[in-house]
């Protein structure tokens, strides 16, 4: 495994202020994770009570049909909420990434599900294509989740309503897993394509983007022994590709 983002060797031109900002950013993300984990925990306790109570009523005899239907509905919706909170919690956990295996397609689909609200709000069409039986990758999935989240948010932010987000995961020509995230946004001008992975490069308004998303994502992908690349046609959309080697350690 390669160096973590904080121990990356920066060249002499890398400004101290930028490095301190990066540390502050990471600290903020950790704090956000801690706060959301606390809130989710508070929400989960009453949810478990609702689910158990609904199950008890469903086991009762003689409950009128109409009431039973309502209780089943309550049970179903509470289960759905509980699944959602579990998903958010796995985003918030930061230190469970060293062990285990990543089911890549499942991880990507979880992120898309997590972003359902953002996608719906922007009237974006989503096309997901997952090849079956892909090999699992080593790791706990949090880093990949963060990368997919960054790339998908960029794609959503780049598109006008009615745009199309295309996500696919398949075996690439080199025999490794290949993830593609494409959009029908305006594309990236060729003269800045080299700069988009630089820390703090952003075209977003003050307060709307830090310009760290792609820098952090490229580092996270390289920690997972993959490569993050981009292909963009000015005026015709952008596709980011993550390529993992055939036998990732
Ligand atoms: N899918 C895309 N379509 C068009 N431009 C993009 C796309 N993804 C990234 N960019 C360009 O690359 C820049 C850098 O992206 P990056 O994710 O690093 O930072 P950001 O999105 O501006 O800020 P942050 O990720 O911190 O919210 C963006 O500001 C945008 O100009
Ligand atoms: Mg971004």
Strand order of the largest sheet: 2-4-5-7-6
Instruction: Determine and state the CATH class of the largest domain.
Output: Alpha Beta
User: What's the main sheet like?
Assistant: 5 strands, mixed
Q: What quaternary form is this?
A: single chain
Total beta-strand segments: 7
CATH superfamily of the largest domain: Histidine kinase-like ATPase, C-terminal domain
Could you please describe the fold and organization of this structure?
The protein has about 250 residues and is an alpha+beta fold. Helix content is about 45%, strand content about 15%. The protein has six helices and seven strands, in the order ααβααββαββαββ. The strands form two sheets. A five-stranded mixed β-sheet has the order 2-4-5-7-6. A hairpin with a 5-residue loop joins β4 and β5. α1 packs antiparallel against α2 and α5 runs antiparallel to α6. Magnesium ion binds next to α5.
């Amino acid at each position: 495994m390669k160096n973590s983002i904080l121990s990356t060797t920066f060249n002499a031109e890398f400004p101290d202020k930028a490095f301190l900002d990066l540390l502050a950013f990471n600290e903020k993300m950790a704090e956000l994770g801690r706060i959301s984990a606390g809130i989710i925990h508070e929400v989960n306790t009453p949810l478990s009570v609702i689910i158990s109570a609904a199950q008890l009523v469903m086991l009762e005899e003689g409950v009128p049909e109409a009431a039973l239907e309502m209780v089943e509905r309550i049970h179903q919706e509470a289960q759905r909420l509980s699944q959602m909170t579990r998903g958010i919690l796995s985003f918030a956990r930061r230190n469970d990434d060293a062990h285990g295996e990543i089911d890549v397609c499942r991880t990507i689909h979880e992120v898309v599900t997590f972003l359902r609200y953002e996608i719906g709000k922007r009237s974006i069409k989503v096309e997901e294509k997952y090849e079956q039986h892909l090999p699992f990758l080593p790791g706990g999935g949090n880093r990949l989740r963060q990368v997919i989240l960054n790339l998908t948010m960029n794609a959503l932010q780049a598109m006008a309503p009615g745009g199309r987000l295309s996500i696919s995961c398949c075996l690439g020509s080199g025999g490794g897993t290949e993830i593609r995230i494409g959009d029908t946004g305006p594309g990236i001008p060729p003269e800045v394509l080299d700069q988009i992975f630089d820390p703090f490069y952003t075209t977003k308004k003050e307060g709307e983007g830090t310009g760290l998303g792609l820098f952090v994502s490229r580092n996270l992908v390289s920690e997972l022994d993959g490569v993050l690349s981009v292909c963009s046609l000015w005026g015709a959309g952008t596709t980011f590709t993550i390529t993992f080697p055939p036998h990732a350690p």
